[in-house]
């Protein structure tokens, strides 16, 4: 283990506050909101422009949906075919039931390579299992080579966006991070570094170059796994992935089992919808495809870790399994009004935004406060479904998960919301109770208007337990006369 300070933070997501609490704090950060609005607005505009170029965009979405559904329907067969073909091509395939098993496999492989550091390609799967933290605990340094991931790592931060992990940082903040942290873990940033994108990218390139050249092990994920050849596919925009996938002696790829596609023909469709939906480009600058090993070319030891970590549980839910169609394009984040204002960290997961609100509670369960709250982190406006390239009906899935959360909480000590709903049910079950409540409310309204508020029609706040509701909105003063009373007094409105 090197003696420099560890870079990064432990992601103790399950100890984080519920979404609503975290989002309230994020709403008070004007810099964060400005960064998010600018970045998501830019990506939305680019995406819309390249999507409009295609007359058959909806047909491509339907085809992508069908391809992913077909792959998931026979997932076991495709995974077995992938393992057989990858093994025949010289790769070694490992199966991991959960994060602990996957981390143990990777740590053992790195140790077998007799090294104490690895370079990494941007990977959501390795973030999901907290691989960097597991490697650090084993005395192994893991260096992120994606520019945004590098910013996050050097800043002791964690990602807030699927495509642009450092979307919550602006250029001035990045410059300060580079100047402060790079020297601690390698080549320092130039003393005259400015916040120009070109200069920041140059500083990162020079800092990473020495790590690329000495690394003996690289770790990646994969965007797609092709069953009929045993191939893996990674798309990226910077070239750092290409360096990791070609230079080291050993390559370890951690791949979610839902990433498998039956054939190359299926890839053709998804490679049209992915770059347009993610970066707003017609195609990715770098697309790397590898199949096992090749004598004298590239890594000579190729390992593939097929990761479950809750995915078969999601697959078993007829109403929730569509989330496994996700190709991690992040289009839903860029159109979501909730994400744009609350930021990615509020979701307490490496999968933020609308897709995180449906995927995370299924992968992790809903036993923690943060996971119980995620299905409610949405206005159900439907914009996420409109842009999803594989047509995941996230709004409907959110409603399904809200039902699950309520059902799981039945019995025992009721929450305030449950008590209020039960009281409302009792009240509405008998018209005499409802009439009595209306009369009481009318009397209360008269008192409030005459004694406290004059002509005002709204209360600034309500006493506990209703105070939680009125913190974010004005409560109307009860009317002095209910509709039922008016109807009876006017004989059904006959004198109007």
From TrEMBL:
Chain intervals with Basic and acidic residues compositional bias: 486-496
Keyword annotations: 4Fe-4S, Electron transport, Iron, Iron-sulfur, Metal-binding, Repeat, Transport
Taxonomic superkingdom:
Bacteria
- Entry's transmembrane regions: none
Iron is among the record's keywords: yes
UniProt keyword Electron transport present:
yes
Q: Enumerate the InterPro entries for this protein.
A: 4Fe4S_Fe-S-bd, 4Fe4S_Fe_S_CS, FTHF_cligase-like_sf, Helical_ferredxn, LUD_dom, LutB/LldF, NagB/RpiA_transferase-like
Positions of the 4Fe-4S ferredoxin-type domain: 316-338
Annotated stretches, region: Disordered: 467-496
Any one Gene Ontology MF annotation carried by this entry is: 4 iron, 4 sulfur cluster binding
Instruction: Kindly list the biological process annotations in GO that this record carries.
Output: lactate metabolic process
| Name listed for the protein in its UniProt record | (4Fe-4S) cluster-containing protein [Kytococcus sedentarius DSM]
């Amino acid at each position: 283990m090197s003696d420099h300070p560890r870079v990064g933070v432990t992601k103790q997501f399950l100890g984080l506050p519920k979404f609503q609490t975290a989002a309230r704090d994020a709403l008070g950060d004007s810099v964060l909101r400005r960064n998010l609005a600018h970045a998501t607005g830019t990506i939305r505009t680019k995406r819309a422009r390249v999507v409009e170029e295609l007359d058959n965009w909806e047909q491509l979405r339907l085809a992508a949906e069908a391809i992913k559904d077909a792959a998931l329907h026979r997932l076991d067969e495709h995974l077995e075919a992938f393992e057989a073909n990858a093994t025949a091509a010289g790769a070694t395939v490992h199966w991991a039931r959960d994060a602990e098993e996957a981390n143990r496999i990777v740590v053992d492989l790195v140790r077998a390579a007799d090294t104490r550091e690895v370079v990494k390609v941007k990977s959501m799967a390795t973030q999901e299992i907290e691989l960097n933290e597991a490697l650090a605990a084993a005395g192994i340094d893991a260096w992120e080579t994606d520019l945004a991931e590098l910013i996050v790592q050097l800043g002791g931060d964690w990602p807030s966006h699927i495509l642009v992990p450092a979307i919550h940082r602006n250029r001035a903040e990045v410059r300060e991070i580079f100047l402060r942290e790079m020297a601690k873990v390698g080549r320092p940033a130039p003393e005259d570094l400015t916040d120009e994108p070109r200069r920041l990218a140059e500083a990162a390139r020079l800092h990473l170059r020495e790590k690329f050249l000495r690394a003996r092990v690289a770790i990646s994920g994969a965007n797609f796994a092709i069953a009929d050849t045993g191939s893996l596919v990674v798309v990226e925009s910077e070239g750092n992935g290409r360096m990791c996938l070609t230079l080291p002696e050993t390559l370890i790829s951690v791949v979610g089992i839902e990433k498998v596609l039956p054939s190359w023909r299926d890839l053709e469709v998804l490679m049209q919808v992915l770059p347009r939906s993610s970066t707003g480009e017609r195609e990715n600058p770098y697309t790397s495809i590898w199949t096992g090993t090749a004598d004298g070319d590239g890594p000579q030891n190729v390992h593939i870790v097929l990761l479950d970590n809750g995915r078969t549980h999601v697959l078993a839910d007829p109403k929730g399994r569509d989330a496994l169609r996700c190709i991690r394009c992040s289009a839903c984040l860029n159109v979501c009004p909730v994400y744009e204002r609350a930021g990615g960290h509020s979701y307490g997961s490496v999968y933020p935004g609308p897709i995180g609100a449906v995927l995370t509670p299924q992968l992790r369960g809903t036993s923690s406060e943060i996971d119980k709250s995620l299905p409610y982190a949405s206005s159900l406006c439907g914009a996420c479904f409109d842009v999803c390239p594989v047509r995941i009906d996230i709004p409907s899935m959110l409603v399904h998960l809200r039902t699950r959360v309520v059902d799981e909480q039945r019995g025992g000590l009721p929450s305030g919301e449950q008590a209020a709903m039960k009281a409302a049910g009792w009240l509405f079950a008998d018209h005499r109770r409802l009439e009595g409540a209306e009369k009481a409310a009318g009397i209360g309204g008269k008192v409030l208007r005459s004694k406290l508020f004059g002509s005002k029609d709204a209360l600034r706040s309500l006493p506990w337990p209703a105070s939680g509701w009125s913190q974010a909105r004005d409560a109307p003063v009860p009317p002095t006369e209910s509709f039922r009373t008016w109807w009876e007094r006017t004989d059904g409105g006959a004198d109007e």
